[in-house]
Amino acid sequence: xxxxxxxxxxLCTGNSARSILAEAIMNREGIGRxxxxxxxxQPTGTPHLRALNLLETLNHPTDDLRSKSWDEFTEPxxxxxxxxxxxxxxxxxxxxxxxxxxxxxxxxxxxxPAAVTGTEAECALAFADTYRMxxxxxxxxxxxxxxxxxxxxxxxxxxxxxxxxxxAKAQPL
Length: 173
What we know:
Elements lengths: L5 E7 L5 H12 L4 E7 L8 H9 L25 E4 L2 H5 L10 E4 L12 H23 L8 H13 L10
Parallel strand pairs: 1-2, 1-3, 3-4
């Protein structure tokens, strides 16, 4: 019998870049074991065009990606989350809603690629770096032996993944 599919919610303020990238990466890296979602405390209403372009270039499906409020995931009909990760410092500092089921959570803060100004190449590099760091963290996460970890050990692993910066640049796109 297949294991229970774990739901993972990535939170950011605008839900336009980092959390959108994380949702798409989770749905590829965690296929069959995890289902990724994303939301924002103050969603912009649309995913950032550079995020969508990067995902499409890397053959991620983008049709279902949208910028949405985290309130959607507090509704009675919403999927119950097993894990929640904040990917920006602003969202981590905000008072979050009550999440049914008491999911495990951690802060995986990353710089905002949408805030980068400069040449097209510099902006594209910021998105590629963010994608690479998220992919590294998500790959590490989906390969944790979750069934062998107690709550304290799991929390330490989740926190450590969020602190990893150096290894995040080790894998090429």
